[in-house]
Q: What sequence folds into this?
């Protein structure tokens, strides 16, 4: 089993941390996005969409982090709570996994890209109006975490135990911290959830976020929920 | 089993057509989006995100069309090809289902909304520059259908047989037709795929698209792949 990834990519981190935590062995195939390795001719054979992460299971190449997390859970028969086999409990996990694409994923990523990544990469000025728009969308998503997903003091997003939904969400919510925004500030339910998730995923969670931490230190980011 | 839906919503149509085709009985709960029924107080109890479709299976409410299609496939044990139980074949279907959110879904919907829906609803002028941006993204997605998903003359998106991925994709690709754009024009592989999918899903496919056809006729839309 090969894993192609870059730890600057939040879905890559989710798959990496999940595999480390559940002790799924893999061959380490780093793809340096900053050096454009995903645009090399050879990489089209691995992923024609030129994204990470990708797994290659003896020639069976699979893209899309959510599909990968499901595949790994089933293939390695990991502890049931990660991706429950029960019809309804699984559907609840699926519900978050599908919801997040056009909410957590796009909103946090767009805020990060427009506030931080694009200006840094291309030397362009921050378009404050556009950033504000993405910020507001991200705020709506964060409010929905507290008022819908974690409603009634649910310990995890989809039930009483941690699932792949929590892993994916936590990694995504790290992204704005590099741009100086702590999503957990003033959101006690979300912050308590974050601590629970990290406690279960560590030491791999922190290890998988070393590069994120380096970027935060270098560019004036914030450590999320530092006061917890 | 109740189904809350509006046939103007493409994921609603996918679930509706799937249930009709696989003969899953449901109680018909129409939600009129144009009249804002999804913003009524009662609807927050059905879906706090105020979207359609939603199923209610004896009190178990589930949102997100992709999660719903998976749930229905498993609960009713429909013919295997719709959502295959084999690990790798299922992963291929999952791969499209996850990919489509930030590609087919968002790009076709944004083009439709900015070219057609918002100007019609709010009486605003079409922002041609923005429409062009969304059009170009949609074109990239459509090219990826032909060069990646349907590569090597694959009859369906994820293999030799129709799956829920094809149902979802076909319904999404109807949306631009209401804004006057035929996604199948000049794309023979995609057009042949569309015909195969419709042949299997009819008469329910056409029935589920009656309201789309009415909008096309009223506002100068085009019938997709009419020359086929």
A:
């Amino acid at each position: 089993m090969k894993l192609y990834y870059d730890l600057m990519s939040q879905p890559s981190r989710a798959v990496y941390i999940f595999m480390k935590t559940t002790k799924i062995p893999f061959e380490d195939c780093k793809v340096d996005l900053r050096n454009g390795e995903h645009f090399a001719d050879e990489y089209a054979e691995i992923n024609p969409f030129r994204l990470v992460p990708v797994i290659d299971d003896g020639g069976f190449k699979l893209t899309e982090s959510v599909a990968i997390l499901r595949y790994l859970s089933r293939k390695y028969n990991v502890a049931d709570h990660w991706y429950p086999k029960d019809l309804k409990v699984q559907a609840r996990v699926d519900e978050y996994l599908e919801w997040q694409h056009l909410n957590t994923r796009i909103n946090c990523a767009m805020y990060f890209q427009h506030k931080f990544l694009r200006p840094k990469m291309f030397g362009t000025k921050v378009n404050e109006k556009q950033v504000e728009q993405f910020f507001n969308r991200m705020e709506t998503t964060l409010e929905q975490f507290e008022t819908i997903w974690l409603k009634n003091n649910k310990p995890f997003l989809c039930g009483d135990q941690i699932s792949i939904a929590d892993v994916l969400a936590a990694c995504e919510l790290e992204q704005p911290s590099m741009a100086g925004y702590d999503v957990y500030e003033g959101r006690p339910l979300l912050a308590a959830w974050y601590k629970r998730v990290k406690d279960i995923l560590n030491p791999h969670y922190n290890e998988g976020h070393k590069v994120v931490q380096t970027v935060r230190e270098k560019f004036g980011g914030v450590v999320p929920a530092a006061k917890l």
Observations:
- Chain B touches chain A at residues 48-49, 60, 62-67, 70-71, 74-75, 87-88, 91-92, 94-95, 97-99, 101-102, 105-106, 144, 147-148 (CB under 8 Å).
- The CA atoms of residues 82 and 217 of chain B lie 32 Å apart.
- The mean pLDDT of chain B is 97.
